[in-house]
UniProtKB/TrEMBL annotation:
Annotated MH1 domain residues: 12-136
GO CC term, one of those recorded: heteromeric SMAD protein complex
Keywords, in A-Z order: Nucleus, Transcription, Transcription regulation
Predominant localisation class: nucleus
Subcellular location: Nucleus
The protein's name: Mothers against decapentaplegic homolog 1-like
One Gene Ontology MF term: RNA polymerase II cis-regulatory region sequence-specific DNA binding
GO BP: any one term: transforming growth factor beta receptor signaling pathway
Amino acid sequence: MNVTSLFSFTSPAVKRLLGWKQGDEEEKWAEKAVDALVKKLKKKKGAMEELEKALSCPGQPSNCVTIPRSLDGRLQVSHRKGLPHVIYCRVWRWPDLQSHHELKPLECCEFPFGSKQKEVCINPYHYKRVESPGECVPHPGTSATTAGLCC
């Protein structure tokens, strides 16, 4: 099934953004997540363009792309709640991402999720992936704590 027929009722902006999607799992969920984001970003001047710039030029400097933080910090997409930066990093960079513990904001990010500001950055290139504490594997002869791998 090609992307065009799958997303025949999808707005052009959502279709463009889905062009950078990673992985092929959960197409409908990704479409709904991106659609919800487009609705939020259209209210902010230049936000859509900034996201498209970040997605089309990975590794190039880009600005924060922010959405308002909800009361509990989570975003609901199709009956599933998740942290917004995790949702969009999963869509555009790491489809196997499991939790926010696997992400760390880059220094250039002015609105990282952990900063508890009113806005949260969802630019997937403002986060790097790190090993989650549950996946630490110490080198033989050292514990995970002494090896500095886990908190």
